[in-house]
Amino acid sequence: MSFLGLIVQFMLLFIFYVILTQINQNIVDLFIFFFKVLCYITFKVTTEERGCIIMANNRLSDLIHILVYIELHDNQKLTSELIASSLNTNPSLTRRMMGQLRKANLLETTQGAACPKLTKDPNKITIFDVYMATCPDSPLLKVDQNTSKECQVGHIVPTILNKYYLEIQSTAEAKMRKITIADIADDVRMDIAHHQKNSATFAKI
């Protein structure tokens, strides 16, 4: 729902409230209760929608991060706490993300043993594979469909944008299929080596 739509809705509810004040106090109290519920739901939904977008964007990055970190520490003891420290997040969230990778058959873990392993050669795991592990339920770019249907521009723009957004989605997915975990891991190794050569204080991976 748009911000303008919420304002209009609240104005109508306020007018209704004024009318009710002339009727019965019990009805007024009931109205206030439902008004508060409406405010809570509206705020919660809009906040969660923004949160889902941010989470979806970050989740792909974090899942790639986990796979690259494990690849760079192959055959080493890796606890969820250690991996979480690299992500700068908490171990519980890290374990949930590792569970996503495990469900997508990209990561193998053994209960009671801190030795996660990639299920495939890193050259065989693409960014698209990881992207699909996030279980995307919406495209990378989302068109706002809540535009004015009475305005010619407002009526047409979502349809036109959807066409271009689908092209962007297709191009992005094609590119993701060409980039592997090995590619990213190699770039990370090179960058770390460069920094370690030029800075004695650069942190170990």
Structure description:
With 205 residues, this protein is mainly alpha-helical. It contains 7 helices and 2 strands. Strands 1-2 form a two-stranded antiparallel ribbon. Strand 1 and strand 2 form a beta hairpin. Helix 2 (25-72) crosses helix 7, helix 3 (80-87) packs across helix 4 (91-103) and helix 5 crosses helix 6 (152-176). The longest helix has 48 residues, at 25-72. The two termini are 45 Å apart. The model is unreliable at 43-55 (pLDDT under 50).
What key phrases describe this protein's structure?
205 residues; mainly alpha; two-stranded antiparallel sheet; 7 helices; elongated
Write the layout of secondary structure elements.
Blueprint: H1 3-20, H2 25-72, H3 80-87, H4 91-103, E1 107-110, E2 113-118, H5 127-133, H6 152-176, H7 181-198
Antiparallel strand pairs: 1-2
Helix pairs in contact: 2-4, 2-7, 3-4, 5-6
